[in-house]
Specification:
The complex is a heterodimer. Chain A is mainly α. Helix content of chain A is about 65%, strand content about 0%. The chains are: A mainly alpha, B mainly alpha. Chain B: GO terms for molecular function: protein dimerization activity.
């Protein structure tokens, strides 16, 4: 934990994330408004911002962690599928994945944790706990940076 | 398929004694990261299931915060156009 006033490492995860996220935000300028209400515009943009935040964080972490790899994969396939739907207007095949809990005496909360951490469904217990710890710290950084940006804009 | 599962169960059953300590170690590491448990004055050992429960709650609350913040940012972006100057300002703010 660096105290305030001390310069942060320019290559830190936090700075990398901030750079990517701000860049993504700056690209989200108001295009010619589509024929949808303003609230819908705000909502779709909010969704885009959320995706950009997770994407920026996953990219800042890189492929060193299983959760970032899983998250990048999920977002990319989702984006690809989204583009196909916009173009073709074909119906979506939603595959509901049934998670079978291996009855190995894992605590019941493990199942919920696996659903929360990206890629957690196929990890063993040790990796799951490690990835959870890393994921938690990255999420906290993400929230802090987003808070800083929002406070700055609110001024 | 069932044979594969029983085989894996046997494998982890034999190695579970070795990794129990590792798991306890990782759980205590998680314990330190969760602010709710970290700020508690008592230093008594928290049960593993409680740590996992609090971890789930913490991650869920973080997800919710991201949702709220992106809503907020979307509102703010509508009113103030971002230009590169502001981006530079923010970057310098964060690098302080």
């Amino acid at each position: 934990m660096t105290p305030k006033g001390v310069s942060l490492n320019p290559n830190s995860r936090k700075t990398k994330f901030a750079r990517r996220f701000i860049f993504a935000l700056s690209r989200m300028r108001n295009p010619i408004p589509v024929s949808s209400s303003i609230e819908e515009e705000v909502r779709t943009r909010s969704h885009k911002i959320k995706i950009a935040a997770y994407l920026s964080m996953a990219r800042a972490v890189g492929s060193r962690r299983a959760w970032s790899r899983a998250l990048l994969f999920k977002l990319r396939t989702r984006a690809r599928r989204h583009n196909m739907i916009i173009r073709r207007r074909s119906f979506r095949l939603k595959k509901k994945r049934i998670i079978k809990n291996d009855p190995q005496g894992e605590p019941s909360q493990t199942k919920k944790l696996r659903q929360l951490v990206p890629g957690g469904k196929t990890m063993d217990m040790c990796s799951l706990l490690e990835e959870t710890a890393h994921y938690m710290t990255c999420l906290a950084t993400q929230v802090k940076v987003m808070q800083t940006i929002a406070d700055h804009f609110a001024k | 398929m069932s044979s594969r599962r029983s085989r894996s169960r046997q494998q982890t059953g034999s190695s579970r004694n070795i990794t129990d300590e590792q798991i306890a170690d990782l759980v205590s590491k998680l314990q330190q990261l969760i602010p709710e448990i970290r700020n508690r004055p008592s230093d008594t050992q928290v049960s593993a299931s409680k740590v996992l429960q609090e971890t789930c709650n913490y991650i869920r609350s973080l997800h919710r915060e991201v949702d709220d913040l992106s809503d907020r940012l979307s509102d703010l972006l509508a009113t103030t156009d971002t230009d590169s100057a502001q981006a530079a300002i923010i970057r310098s703010l964060l690098s302080q």
